[in-house]
Amino acid sequence: MRQTNVKSDRVAALLDELIARTGETKVAALERALGERLRRLDRADRLEQALGWLERDVWRHLPAGLRGRANPHAERGARHEG
Length: 82
Fold this sequence. Notes:
Elements: H1 9-22, H2 26-58, H3 72-81
């Protein structure tokens, strides 16, 4: 087992607050918090990749007059639903 020592009063205070509010152990709280952060980063990376694909491979094929506009059929449907 590998040990990590964090020498930060701010991090220790945040961890203490987290375990007080959740009732988790320090290890469980850290594991969950770090896992959640990594999942958010993964989602952000996937979003960035998807936007890159749209810009590179999709949007450039749209007629110039349609770029940056909502789907006119979706706009019409939204007006009739309200």
